[in-house]
Automatic annotation (TrEMBL):
Entry keyword Transmembrane helix: yes
InterPro entries named in the record: TPR-like_helical_dom_sf
Chain segments annotated as transmembrane: 12-31, 43-66, 93-113
Protein name: TolB-like protein
The organism of origin for this protein: Marinicella litoralis
Pfam families in alphabetical order: TPR_16
Key words, A-Z: Membrane, Transmembrane, Transmembrane helix
Claim: Transmembrane helix is one of the keywords in the record: yes
């Protein structure tokens, strides 16, 4: 054995191998710099790396078999040992290797002092644009891809996804670092996507990818940061830890990335060092729940809550589990048919407990914002919660969508639209967020833009239920009821547990005077959760258009305070009980913290209009104050958004009601014609709406009602007969 070692040494095999490795490494560093600068394809780097690896063994074998002599290369066996110059060759190889080592060290020091730029526009100081993007790429930006599950059983994808998402949330706290949101980043699961493609789609300069191998209580995490332009690895590391120490690894990885990107790490004290589970098993249960809760289905959210509750049995002070429970109940109220009060009563204590443990927890802040806006009608408090949530975690997209809804309801349309666009920019591949932007466009009367967004979603995801939801809403708003029915039917069939579509179909059939189908679909909405908000909203509309004021009053008693009390007031108007109506509307305005003389907003509009009519009938002079406040708001919004479908109230119809309160028949006709032009089909107004009692014989209004009814019946005629 010692003889073999001596022979390897004599033939300079070790020196050749060392020189090859050092020079190869130096060559790769040069290539990493030159290829991007010359705008050459990134695969060249991979190809050269592969060639160098494959050539290593032949070079070593060649150094064993041949010797470099003054007369050229000769087989070692043909060289006279007394004339061998291998010792001189060894000295030359030592010098070459030393020079290469100095070169590698110098290049490393240079790159640390002057980080390598791989984009000519960056070198010139101009903003970089990735091909296919319409936005400048942020100088420091990153997408966190879903880590690969490398566990032997292949059953730890939920855990790998959870690690990726937690890293994303930590990185989102870093000042100056733009982080692509989860939904879009996780679209690139697997190995079939090119790094340049990912960077272009997500508008980022760097990508973090990795793998997780979990076995029992042991976890191995491998992470690597890749430069999009050059395709080279900026940083990589492997961590072997016990599950209970997983949180320290997440912070280590985040800190390493921040250092690699030359950013200053300023993590929020409640995020970078976020309050984690003290127990690895609790954390594992939490991640299982998170995996189920990502798509807001009734079954998934319900099972997710069970996992979160199991985690809390093990660790009662696990803030993330409390926050996740609050968030799940909020979405169950919307997508799961849970009655609002029931869901809110479960969400609130969970959210408050999460914030006691971790005051800047984004999911809990978002849940409290929603509760303050919907349950307690404290709009300014709700706004503060939403803004705190976005500041705490800019990558927490749920905060953006619920914040935009609240702004829309207040009538702050432009700001709501900005928040919607910000969400899409952060999560550009999310069909949900794109559909919510489309919804805003529908409300603004920008139907072509809404249709373009919906078409784009369906082009890449033909069965996207969010797109079908907004398609149905768009078609109804355009008066195309017959076309809306199939869209809503698809939604109902493909989103089990959600009563929304069934409720909308019931309303459409009511307008088309198809009572059997109306009752069938209203029952379908109820079957997905008796007393859910979509069922109650449908029952309210059907009762109002039928003049069934007792039924409408009962529905108002079942609904949340601010809206339900308004419905009770409207039912009392229909019953000509002016005192009861006035009392109900005053309670609504009191709950909304509205005082006489305040500027109106979207939340108080219906109550103000109803109060104006009740007080005029009671000959109370303040009716004019309420009417004027409502009119100013409605007229301003009607102008600013071009059309009057805002958000669920047609402003032309509202202005016609106010004109009726004033006794202005010309105004009533003008605005009702505007409502007709905007495809409003509430033809029952001439018979049942108490605002128009004095105008039921007005020929022009009768004609408008007849046109509305004729349109509805024509839509019914377009439907295919049911078997």
């Amino acid at each position: 054995m010692s003889g073999l070692f001596s022979e390897l040494k004599r033939r300079n095999v070790f020196r050749v191998a060392a020189a090859y490795l050092v020079i190869g490494w130096l060559l790769l560093q040069v290539v990493d710099t030159v290829v991007p600068a010359l705008h050459m394809p990134a695969w060249i780097i991979s190809a050269i790396t592969l060639v160098l690896i494959l050539a290593f063994i032949p070079v070593v074998l060649f150094s064993w078999a041949y010797e470099l002599t003054p007369d050229g290369l000769k087989k070692d066996s043909a060289v006279d040992k007394s004339k061998s110059v291998s010792s001189q060759t060894a000295k030359k190889l030592d010098v070459i290797t030393l020079i290469a080592v100095v070169g590698v060290a110098s290049l490393f020091v240079y790159q640390q002092i002057f980080p390598v730029s791989h984009n000519q526009s960056e070198m010139s100081g101009k903003p970089t644009k990735i091909q296919g993007s319409t936005q400048d790429v942020a100088a420091k930006s990153i997408a966190v891809l879903p880590f690969a599950d490398m566990s032997i059983e292949g059953d730890q994808a939920y855990f790998a996804d959870g690690i990726s998402e937690e890293l994303l949330n930590v990185l989102a706290q870093v000042d100056g670092l733009k982080v692509a949101a989860r939904t879009s980043s996780f679209k690139f699961r697997g190995d079939e996507h090119d790094i340049v493609e990912i960077g272009s789609a997500l508008n980022v300069r760097t990508v973090l990818e990795g793998s997780v191998r979990k076995s029992g209580n042991q976890v191995r995490i491998t992470a690597q940061l890749i430069d999009v332009a050059g395709g080279f690895h900026v940083w990589s590391e492997t961590y072997d830890r016990e599950l209970d120490n997983i949180f320290a690894v997440q912070d280590e990885i985040a800190s390493a990335i921040v250092e690699a990107l030359k950013l200053k790490l300023k993590l929020n004290s409640q995020v970078g060092g976020s309050q984690h589970a003290e127990n690895g098993e609790a954390y594992d249960l939490y991640l299982r729940g998170r995996e189920l809760a990502r798509e807001p289905s009734k079954s998934g959210l319900t099972r997710a809550i069970q996992y979160f509750e199991q985690a809390l049995v093990i660790d009662p002070d696990f803030a993330a589990a409390h926050g996740a429970i609050a968030s799940a109940w909020i979405w169950l109220e919307d997508y799961g048919g849970i009655p609002s009060q029931d869901a809110f009563d479960r969400a609130e204590p969970a959210a408050r407990r999460a914030l006691e443990l971790e005051p800047n927890r984004a999911d809990a802040l978002t849940a409290m914002g929603f509760l303050e806006e919907r349950k307690y009608t404290n709009d300014e408090v709700a706004r503060d919660y939403f803004e705190r949530a976005i500041k705490a975690n800019p990558a927490f997209i749920e905060a953006y969508t619920l914040y935009a809804d609240a702004l829309r309801d207040l009538g702050e349309i432009e700001l709501a639209l900005k928040v919607r666009r910000d969400a899409v920019e952060r999560d550009p591949l999310s069909g949900f967020l794109q559909s919510r932007l489309a919804s805003m466009m529908v409300g603004l009367g920008r139907y072509d833009e809404a249709q373009q967004i919906i078409d784009a979603i369906l082009l890449t995801a033909p069965n996207d239920t969010y797109a079908y939801e907004e398609l149905g809403n768009l078609l109804v708003t355009q008066g195309r009821l017959a076309e809306a029915i199939p869209a809503y039917t698809f939604l109902h069939e493909n989103r089990p547990g959600d009563p929304f579509a069934a409720a909308q179909i019931a309303i459409s059939y009511k307008l088309m005077q198809m009572s059997d189908q109306q009752q069938q679909w209203l029952a379908a909405a109820r079957d997905r959760g008796a007393g859910n908000r979509w069922e109650l909203s449908a029952r309210r509309s059907i009762a109002q258009w039928s003049g069934d004021w007792d039924a409408m009053f009962r529905v108002g008693q079942l609904y949340l305070a601010k809206t339900g009390t308004t419905w009770q007031g409207q039912a009392s108007l229909g019953q000509l009980d002016w005192e009861a109506a006035r009392s109900a509307f005053q309670r609504t305005l009191s709950r909304l913290n509205y005082r006489q003389g305040d500027l109106a907003n979207g939340n108080v509009l219906e109550a103000l209009v109803g109060l104006a009519l009740a007080e005029k009938r009671l000959e109370i002079d303040s009716w004019t104050v309420h009417a004027n406040a409502a009119r100013v708001f409605a007229e301003n919004k009607l102008v600013s958004i071009s059309l009057g479908n805002w958000p669920n109230i047609n402003l032309n119809y509202t202005l016609a009601q106010l004109a009726a309160v004033d006794g202005d028949v010309e105004g009533v006709v003008k605005y009702m014609q505007g409502a007709l032009d905007e495809h409003i089909i509430e033809y029952s107004f001439i018979k049942h709406d108490p605002f128009f009692i004095e105008f039921r014989d007005e020929a022009r209004l009768i004609a408008i009602a007849q046109q509305m009814e004729a349109h509805a019946l024509a839509e019914a005629g377009k439907l295919e007969p049911t078997p």
